Amino acid sequence: QKKTLILAIETSCDETSAAIVADGHIILSNIVASQIKSHMRFGGVVPEIASRHHVEQITQCIEEAMSQAKVTYQDLAAVAVTEGPGLVGALLVGVNAAKAIAFAHQLPLIPVNHMAGHIYANRFEAPLEFPLMALVVSGGHTELVYMEKDGVFEIVGETRDDAAGEAYDKVGRVLGLTYPGGKQIDQMAHIGQDTFHFPRAMIKENNYDFSFSGLKSAFINTVHNAEQKQIALNKEDLAASFQASVIEVLVTKTIRACQEYQVKTLVLAGGVAANAGLRATLKEQMACQLADIKLMIPPLALCGDNAAMIGAAAYISYQKEEWAGYDLNAIPSLEI
Ligand code: KG4
Ligand code: ZN
């Protein structure tokens, strides 16, 4: 039987990506052009620079994805693109590239929510079993999302301030790490010990919301106070203490949400899903507290932003024939 091939495009932040996905769960190609080097010296993503790089990279990324997958435009069933959330100028590059291709080759145009894409990155491992709870942790978002079935999302909790990845990156900057600091803190945390006992914000509150700005401030104050008194602190212990606080709050509240919503599956998603400590703690705690719930963690290569995950999410809309018109616009603060 002929496979449904979707060309997917992702340009929401600082990765220009194009992929060919078959039947929503087979990756034929997944090209990711990272711009991190261009943003590094500014300590974060500069929106204007991101947009310019996307413009420069997008055509080549798409051509590369097509040629690696050995497909032509005639083989495609649809074009999918991230419509939000993200940086508006960055999103617009992908949206306009997708529209142009859809128009030129008379293909259906499928808008995809970036966060849904992160969740569907897990679809490449195995079919999703519902109902499920997804802990989506990235540089821009931290959410617990309940899904009764494919394509239906309910936010049951979210961060009131900083996203988990954002806190990692800000704390990384204070430690003098290059942007983004998340991965380096994760590595340092495995050498250090939780000696600082930073606060576990909102852990006891009867809701599924999070807050990471207090932890970030506690961390920064600790470092600055030590600097003033010219005391040298152990950076690995600082990293371990910060990570212990983030993980304990995320895991505790996620497990509670899984229990209350009586889900079959817990799905981890987003850039911070690459965190070794978080992956290990979730596995451990799920095994002893919720052994009957299946835990899904995306492969490392699919945790960060990429177009394949957009192709997986798009396949659900494809089956329902949910197309967009040529008036499709980028929506920077799109909710899942
Ligand atoms: O999903 P993503 O690629 O982009 C957004 O949609 O935001 O996530 C990027 C975030 C960054 O904040 C980065 O520091 C964080 O994911 N990250 C990590 C790790 N790898 C990436 N945070 C903690 N531990 C990691 N191993
Ligand atoms: Zn993302």
Summarize the helix and strand pattern as letters. Answer: EEEHHEHEHEEEHHHHEHEH
Strand content: 15-25%
Instruction: Round the mean pLDDT to the nearest integer and report it.
Output: 96
Tally the helices: 10
Q: Based on the coordinates given, report the CATH architecture of the largest domain.
A: 2-Layer Sandwich
Name of the CATH first level of the largest domain: Alpha Beta
Structural class: alpha/beta
Order of neighbouring strands in the sheet with most strands: 3-2-1-4-5
Helix content: 40-55%
CATH homologous superfamily identity of the largest domain: ATPase, nucleotide binding domain
Total number of distinct structural domains? 2
- Uncertain stretches of 5 or more adjacent residues: none
Q: How many β-strands, per DSSP?
A: 10
Please state the CA-atom Rg, rounded to the nearest Å: 20 Å
Largest sheet: 5 strands, mixed
Bound heterogens, unique? 5'-O-[(R)-(carboxyoxy)(hydroxy)phosphoryl]adenosine, zinc ion
User: First CA to last CA: what distance?
Assistant: 33 Å
Shape: globular
CATH topology of the largest domain: Nucleotidyltransferase, domain 5
